[in-house]
Amino acid sequence: MKKTGNPQRAEHFPTWQATDGSPLSCVEKIKVLNDNFGELREIMQDALEDALLMGCDEEQFRAVMRDLVAELHNPYDKSDKQD
């Protein structure tokens, strides 16, 4: 069942930046990033609501989500070469 979330919250996307700090200008890249961001926001909101309904501590849930993001691996990191 789809949850509605906060209907008063406007959809806000970050200004996506290149590695040199300049804003991305390719419309297609920005569209993909915004689509991914929107999907993640919706999934995470649903997961938070489910956790709260099942009695999970909100701060613990948020800490687990932060840890999850911190554990993500960049497969394109050139400094992370394995011989």
Gist of the model:
By secondary structure, the protein is mainly α. It contains two helices and no strands.
Structural summary, described in words:
The protein is built from two helices and no strands. With 83 residues, it is mainly alpha-helical. It has a domain at 27-71. The longest helix has 27 residues, at 27-53. The chain is flat and about 45 Å long. The N and C termini lie far apart (47 Å). The mean pLDDT is 88.
Envelope shape: flat
SSE string: HH
Instruction: Compute the separation of the termini in Å.
Output: 47 Å
Roughly what is the average pLDDT, rounded to an integer? 88
Uncertain runs with pLDDT below 50, 5 residues or more?
Answer: none
- Count of DSSP-assigned helices: 2
Number of strands: 0
Q: What's the Cα radius of gyration?
A: 17 Å
Class from secondary-structure proportions: mainly alpha
Beta fraction = under 5%
Helix content: 40-55%
The oligomeric state of the chains shown is single chain
Biggest beta sheet attributes: none
Characteristics:
2 helices, 83 residues, 49% helix, mainly alpha
Write the layout of secondary structure elements.
Layout: H1 27-53, H2 58-71
Helix pairs in contact: 1-2
